[in-house]
Amino acid sequence: MKPPYLYCLLLACLCHSANAQLLDRLGNQVDGVTREQEQVTGDVQEQVRRAAEDELSTRRLLDNTLDHPVINPLTDVLTQTTEEVTRTTTEITRAANNIVGNAMAAVLPILNRDGRTAFVEVQVEDNWRAVEREWLILLDQSGLKALAALDAEIIEQTQFAELGMQLVRFRVPATLDSSAALKKYLPPHLHEQLDRNHIYNPQKDISRKDIPHTPSQAAFCNHAVRVGMIDTAINLQHPAFAQRDIDIKDFAGEEFDAPRAHGTAVAGVLVGRGEQLTPLLPAAHLFAASVFYPRSEYAQGATMVNLVRALNWLLEKNVQVINMSLAGPENKILALAIQKTIQTGTVIVAAAGNEGPAAPPAYPAAYTDVIAVTAVDKNQRIYRWANRGDYIDFAALGVAVFTARSSGDFGNETGTSMAAPLVTAAAACIVATANASAINPSLINFSTIIGEQLKKNALDLGVAGRDPVFGDGLLNRP
What we know:
The chain is α/β, with parallel strands linked by helices. The chain has helices spanning 4-24, 33-65, 71-103, 141-148, 179-183, 261-271, 304-316, 332-343, 416-436, 446-456, and strands at 107-111, 117-123, 129-138, 153-160, 165-171, 194-202, 226-231, 245-250, 285-290, 293-294, 300-303, 321-324, 326-327, 347-351, 371-376, 394-397, 401-404, 410-413.
């Protein structure tokens, strides 16, 4: 039998480990602070419960073997560690509130790997975020002359051949940093081709570690489909991706240490393989566009112009379906890029958003002909933080989804981000079958045709028929 003092040490380590995990989670992105506080509280309660059970088991064991000389010290250790966990929770809550307060200041310098400011994020209209004083416009030479009259700094002028778009990114003086101000100086035909360089966010939340997962059981199809994803980078060294066919291209820039957690999880669902992980598309060729830069260890952002770059590259690669597990504001340039992508016959599937039932529509999911996916748990209950609205098309499992993690292991992930790949896989298999049947994917309504095919396989949930919670229903693995 182990010396009694070892049980005290083990119990103390357990609680100190819990504290460390709680503190590590403090850095989660600002938009998820409220959710994180709730999860922290649940984790604390679970750790205290487990600590109490361990203490009781140890007490019983010691009662059978000793005159219990260590019982009182053990109880003291439990009391001290429980108090420490409580203090930690209070500190996390206070810090989280400070984060919310700081977020309202709406200015966030984005640092490169050398610690220098690459650009500045600011809060703009409707509490969305954008690169400070940066705008995008589709222009010809006459439009460039109009910009010159504004004393605007032209940052880049790029021709996106696959999208048929010439995009100009420019910076304006503070006095002209609004749509209304700029429209006073630009010809009317350019007004609908102008918008900010908005920031978009991944749509995955931290999962409770004590929620059991259901091992994935079946692939959707074995077709050699070409699938794209616009996300963070991927940890290609993860064993889940051994012998997987994956191409990745970075659009965020070499000046940043590319985040990998979110993209690894999404790619893991699509093509990853493990002891309890069956890929949705085992024979797919995955093209992954990395567009996110790090805000912190836990939070990432992607500029709108890099989403356009990613779409153009994926069209070059002739992908059949694109997964976009990200969300942000409506943007005129993005809307046009999405429209042109869909007109080529490429299907786009996007996460519906994790901002809650009362949140405004999230884009690109809310654009017409983009397939918007919400998340449910294994009991077909809606994910509590999922967006709702008439733009929701389908629901899929998105709570406690078992997948690869960038740390090299496997675990649960939650959010509409994790539900979208399932619908992406289902759509890719239908597209592959349609192509084999000589259905022309360049049809203007091809995306609608795919949506109708998906609807035939959906299980109606909620009120009868289409609704703003589950859309046309739940799509499951075969």
